[in-house]
Amino acid sequence: MSQERFSTVLISGLTLTAILFVGIFIGKGGDQPGYASESYEELQVFAEVLSQVKKHYVEETKTKDLVQGALRGMLAGLDPHSSFMTSDMFKEMQVETKGEFGGLGIQIGIKDHRLTVIAPIEDTPAFAAGIQAGDTIIKVDDKSTKDLTLMEAVQHMRGQRGTSVKLTVLREGIEEPLIFTITRDIIKIQSVRSKILEGNIGYIRMTQFQESTATDLTKELEHLITQHIQGLILDLRNNPGGLLTAAVRVSEQFLEAGRLVVSIQGRNEKKVEYRAGANSKHYQYPMIVLVNHGSASASEIVAAAMQDWGKAVVIGTTSFGKGSVQTILPLSDGSGLRLTTAKYYTPKGKSIHSIGVQPDIVIDLKAIQVAKKDTSEGNEGGKGSNTTAVKTPKAETEEPPKPSDPNEPQPVPPEDVQLLKAVEMLKSWKVFKQILPAA
Fold it and tell me: Which pLDDT tens digits describe the chain residue by residue (439 residues)?
């Protein structure tokens, strides 16, 4: 398998001929002489069913609609991440990887057979409405998501700017479904942002892995270098992934040339290894990577590479666990396939599929909130009261307020426990480095 084949590989927890796409493998030297004829027999049955539906179904049908419905069912039956895309859907997918599209600003995937929010995208209608990573979407408007494919769900949520859509979601810890009415907008994603935090620590927030992400990261790192930072925090929380090539180019900026970033392996082919290039900058800073349940696919590749090579301490909660590779295959009529073609493995050969990246230091915000609530209830109970006022925490990826001078160190929001811990660790890193061994 050549790397060229995977130059357009897309990893996403989410986001066809005119008649029928059938891959017929003919073995070399006649190794599988019966396969082509078997496929033909199955196609004959398909043609018979198509003919009977056209003749006898209670309402008039279009051949194109029937075939596309069959294709959607074929791909959906493989796994939650494979799908058929009509020409319009295929065009939207191409636009999305470039960082601008219309919709709500939600990255979705299938988790435990349910339509699940991987992460809301910052500064979008969904983020402002309060959609959270881990929410289960059970209805889009009044349509159940039970039998929707991933791409069909995306199509229902997309729409013209100014129109609205109603989402019904289930959220852990809340008994009744939550209903959100969200107005669609043009989603423009700035995938990389940087700031200086207290202690002269560089902070980089990465929201997605797009075509320009690695280049944007280089620019932000070069800027932080001019500020003489003492450490670096790479925030991948609620980053649902994106392009495999972008994840590799991001990782190689912190790895020595030749170091393995990730390897992928398909069904019948050898592993393909992606390594840091000879021209990588190889930035050397004490570094912490922040992850949570909304960190998926490409984010997990970067976090695992930093962890396996000892380049960073990973802090947060276990990541999403999306360890498969989807290849985008364009078709002759302008439609396309999003097909799972391989699984990926970390530099140490581990698969994180359905497992996730395990943080070096676990900081579970939900556990902290429960502990605070229990403490509050205990205190109130001593006063004879059964009511508890629990402050709802702000989003864990909320950035510090912007000062008048962007180069001025910023305080960390006290609600962001994970980020506070990261800053504290990097400050301690500097202190311990300065301690001389006793004589």
Answer: 444 443 344 444 333 222 222 222 222 233 333 444 566 778 889 999 999 999 999 999 999 999 999 998 999 889 888 989 888 778 777 766 555 667 898 888 888 888 999 888 878 899 999 999 889 999 999 899 987 878 788 888 888 889 999 999 999 889 999 999 999 998 877 889 999 999 899 999 999 898 899 999 999 999 999 999 999 999 999 998 989 999 999 999 999 999 999 999 988 778 899 999 987 777 889 999 999 998 999 999 999 999 999 999 999 999 999 999 888 899 999 999 999 999 999 999 999 988 999 999 999 877 666 555 555 555 554 443 333 333 334 445 555 445 446 667 888 888 899 999 999 999 888 777 677 565 4
Indicate the pTM of the whole model: 0.68
Q: Is 311 a catalytic residue?
A: no
Distance CA 411, CA 240 (A): 27
Q: 100-188 adopts what CATH topology?
A: Pdz3 Domain (2.30.42)
Domains 100-188 and 192-325+340-364+396-430 share a fold: no
The verdict on whether 308 is a catalytic residue reads yes
For residue 251, indicate whether it is catalytic.
no
Choosing from 135, 185, 235, 308, the catalytic residue is 308
Fold of the 192-325+340-364+396-430 domain: 2-enoyl-CoA Hydratase; Chain A, domain 1 (3.90.226)
Domain boundary assignment for the chain: 3-85, 100-188, 192-325+340-364+396-430, 365-393
List 194, 322, 324, 335, catalytic entry: 322
Q: Which of 12, 251, 297, 299 is catalytic?
A: 297
